[in-house]
Amino acid sequence: MTSDATQKGPFMAAKALSFDVGDYVVYPKHGVGRVIELQKQEIAGTSLELYVLRFEKERMTLRVPTNKAESVGMRKLSSDKTMREAMETLKGKPKVKRTMWSRRAQEYEAKINSGDLASIAEVVRDLFRADDQPEQSYSERQIFEAACSRLARELAAMEEVDEPKAQEKILDILRAAAAIYNKDKVPA
């Protein structure tokens, strides 16, 4: 029997992304998971290679065919540069759209599920409420928490810290930005 490396040949890298057991990966709809196993299964007479991903927070295991990893948007953790850009996004002035909440909620959900770090950071920034600001609705808070958790999990995996520590770092950045942008609104 031949080894996996010789079976795949030199063209395999061009066809599919390559992840190893133990790698952290980002799956757009579920966030950060870890490759816990590479499996071979026979399904309908076809041999299939699968990445087995474990998402600890959701207590979920997902199997992704190796040849579909790229098309579903699965990716390695972001680069340091991408993470720095996302953190810079958090420091920006929140953009408040005046469209109906249901429409905005759909847009926010789409950004979160895109897996794009900059888009997720925009949702976090735009939905953040400082202690001195009006309270969020339940659904706003749910979307904010989902986006913040998604961003924090990737930051935590990159910085090798736990999610609460990463989340606190994000909230510190947001509070500092809110202090700058909200002082314009406070009557003198």
Automatic annotation (TrEMBL):
Residues 18-128 form the CarD-like/TRCF RNAP-interacting domain. Gene3D superfamilies: 2.40.10.170, CarD-like, C-terminal domain (1.20.58.1290). PANTHER family: RNA POLYMERASE-BINDING TRANSCRIPTION FACTOR CARD, TRANSCRIPTION FACTOR YDEB-RELATED. This is CarD family transcriptional regulator. The lineage of its organism: Bacteria, Pseudomonadati, Pseudomonadota, Alphaproteobacteria, Sphingomonadales.
